[in-house]
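Chapter summary example.
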Amino acid sequence: MWPLLALFLALLSPTVLSLELEVLNEWNLLDLNIPYDYGLINNFRPETNVFTGLEITNDRIFLSIPRLWSGVAATLTVIPRHTPPGSSPRLEAYPSWDFHKLGKGQNDSCDGLTSVYRMRQDSCNRLWVLDAGVNLSLEDFQRICPPKLVVFDLATDQVVRTVVFPRQVLRPNSLLANLIIDETAQGTCDSAFVYMADTAAPGMVVYDGARDTAWRIMHPTMFPDPDFSDYTIAGERFTLMDGVVGLAFSPKLSTVYFQPLATDRLFSIPASALRKGPPSQDEELPITLVGKKASQGLGLALDPKDDTIYFSPVRETSVAAWNPVTNQQKLIAYDQDKLQFAAELRWREQDNSVWLLSTRFQKFFRRTLNPQDVNLRIIRISTTPSLQTGLTNNLYF
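The structure predicted for these 397 residues follows.
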């Protein structure tokens, strides 16, 4: 086990570090292109719309907006991939507004999307969308529909597969909030394994695409730690007891990394232990404590070329990198304003960069939003060595 991020941020120059942040898009509040004849236009509340999931394709950026509170019009949205730097494009519902209608007589068949936290693209140019099936998860937790995976062909934007999870792998308060697609073990696309984080009923759900079956795995390391249930960001404090949510996968090491939100720890488990099927009652899962961070964090990303893990400790408003093989540690970026609560981190191999969603979630949670401020950003951070001048690696003990 290694200490992952004992930062002495006071020794750093925010001016130098801020050069590493490329703000691609930013919003004071999200703006959706809601049709005038659509029922939710009068109920749309921008102050309750905060994105949590990010996927980048060649021509589009997908953003998920879970229904944490009332007033969310569309839970899966899309914007063009190439827009002017710092622009605030209006979000379009994906694949259409018909998939997002809720209410009496609407989505009663559960064919649409209820609440999406995250989605992932596979090697067949398809988007796997994880629908938690829960409405108002931070108000009164309404189970509207069974959790499911909905797979879209990105060439046609049509549904090509739907997987509804059986009750035996769920719990009454299950909230599936993140996923990994593993195409290394038994084939790609429909044959892939999918590992999913159950945040509110802490555990993981594994789906075997080739056999169309699923099972549940639980372990104390997936539960929140009450000692880390309070978060302080830019002087504002809030409490959230979330279990496992951050996930990253190393194809080279065949290892899944995971972290609850309410903890300062990062854990790992061999992917083979997840793929083998439901564990027996007395079986011990081979889970390893990887290390401790300076504070809690949500998103994880991994560079598969060298297995470097990227994470963002919320209190330090920073992004850091750590390689579990070499123990090399870096501070990638630090910004007290732009890096408030990184809800999602993604590694993009095409440009050797970390993309993230910065959300100022504490202000949404505490109802302290100022609509005149920039509260939501899509940020790109280059990891090109030439851009890391001015950073020091001697920041850890």
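To summarize the output: Residues 5-19, 386-397 have pLDDT under 50 and may be disordered.
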